[in-house]
Amino acid sequence: MKRFCALLLILMLTLPLLPAALADTPNPIPVLADDEIPDTPSGIHHYMLICIDSWDAQLKDQWVSQTGIWANHTDGLILLTVDEFSHRVMLTSFIRDMLIMRPDGKYGRINNFLDKDGWAYANKKNEYEGLQALVDTINSHFGLRIEKYIVVDFRQVENIINAVGGVDINITDREAHYLKNYPISAASTTPAIAAGGTYHFTGHAAVIYMRIRKVHTAEYLHADGKVYYDTQDYGRTYRDRLVLSSIADSLKDISEEDAMKLLDVIVANTVYTNMSTDDFLSALDLAMEMRGSPVEHIRMPIEGTYEEFPYAGMATKQIDFLANREALQAFIMDSFVVVDDE
Questions:
Q1: What gap in Å lies between CA 45 and CA 249, rounded to an integer?
Q2: For residues 222 and 232, is the Cβ–Cβ distance under 8 A?
Q3: What's the average model confidence in pLDDT over 135-139?
Q4: Neighbour count for residue 198 (Cβ, 10 Å)
Q5: Do 24 and 126 meet the contact criterion of CB atoms below 8 Å apart?
Q6: DSSP letter for each residue of 2-16
Q7: Residue 42: which residues within 8 A CB-CB, separation 6 or more?
Q8: Which of 300, 299, 282 is nearest to 82 (CA)?
Q9: Residue 164 has pLDDT above 70, yes or no
Q10: Lowest-pLDDT range of 94-103, 119-128, 252-261, 282-291
Q11: φ, ψ for residue 185, nearest 5 deg
Q12: What are 43-62's pLDDT values in tens digits?
């Protein structure tokens, strides 16, 4: 009887802990095997743009010798897709705290592949494993076949924006208030920021704008057909897409000679890429062909398909990959268009 009572007491004390323990278990993630991923249709080209969370990824010796892995997060993840037949240019951004299934079968955050504590750092089988593992993971989670990627840091983004002559950005009153209180030069925008409105941003100011998290964005049309604003990291992804769209718009009349000069700047301001010279020249030909095409964009995850999920001491978001995979395929393949309302 005493033994029974002791077991009953232990069970009663343990039961309240069970929901918390179960809450630490993420939902299964439906990862696609390579033979389940459809081939990329003819005429569609994917380029993964990866930005390291650093102003000087190489200058500060954050490159880990003989491994090709940086002790940084990959906080900027944007897929550039070009459909040369329908003349569409598409941007897909992926939030940095998305919970994914790593190639080693464990859960992790999508931006940790180049982190010193991440999966890639612990598996030094080849020089650029972390980058390829990141791209492979995006492919297996979203049903894509991305092959080409480019890695940059904040300073290099600044240099590239300066090379195109800066960008025009329409900001809200709240964004103006934030930027006025940030330590950037008043001369870094034209005119100097006073209130909401359209300003011409230099590279450094544009990067600072792209990094804003504490102020929500202007309202814009989302993939669910509703108009509202983004906050926190969702706001960052929107601002990233907005700046890239502004760059594309500023280049709609660029000459082939100036385009070649800009390509040289991009190549010089790249931490690493697996693109060859021929790949870059082919991409340049595509860019010239697409001049003036409106830039469409989408964010992964779309609204209503994610939830906050603390996991292993990390702040992550658990998303419905089936719904987002379907939305992304519709966006890329079926002319599912998302455009700014500004």
A1: 20
A2: no
A3: 93
A4: 9
A5: no
A6: HHHHHHHHHHHHHGG
A7: 85
A8: 282
A9: yes
A10: 119-128
A11: -65, 140
A12: 999 999 999 877 776 544 44
- Between 2-16, 94-108, 215-229, 305-319, the lowest mean confidence (pLDDT) is in 2-16
DSSP per-residue letters across 119-167: HHHH--SSTTHHHHHHHHHHHHHHT----EEEEEEHHHHHHHHHHTT-E
Pairing label, strands 167-171, 197-201: antiparallel
Q: DSSP letter for 71, please.
A: S
Residue 98, beta-bridge partner list: 317
DSSP 26: P
Cα(194)–Cα(299) distance, integer angstroms:
30
Q: Under CATH, which architecture does the 30-154+218-333 domain have?
A: 3-Layer(aba) Sandwich (3.40)
Backbone angles phi, psi at 96, to 5 degrees: -75, -25
Mean pLDDT of the chain, nearest integer: 81
CB atoms within 10 A of CB 128: 15
pLDDT tens per residue across span 273-317: 899 999 999 999 999 999 888 899 999 999 889 998 888 888 889
Which pTM was predicted?
0.83
User: How far is the C-alpha of 46 from the C-alpha of 196, rounded, in Å?
Assistant: 35
Residue with tokens 């209130």: 195
Tokens of 16: 């309240």
Tokens representing 324? 């987002």
State the amino acid at position 227 in one-letter form.
V
- Token couple for 317: 């978001």
Can you read off the two tokens belonging to residue 268? 């010089």
**Domain residues of the chain, as ranges?**
30-154+218-333
Q: 86: which 2 tokens?
A: 């329908």
Cα separation, 52 vs 73, in Å, equals 6
- Output phi, psi for 13, to 5 deg: -70, -30
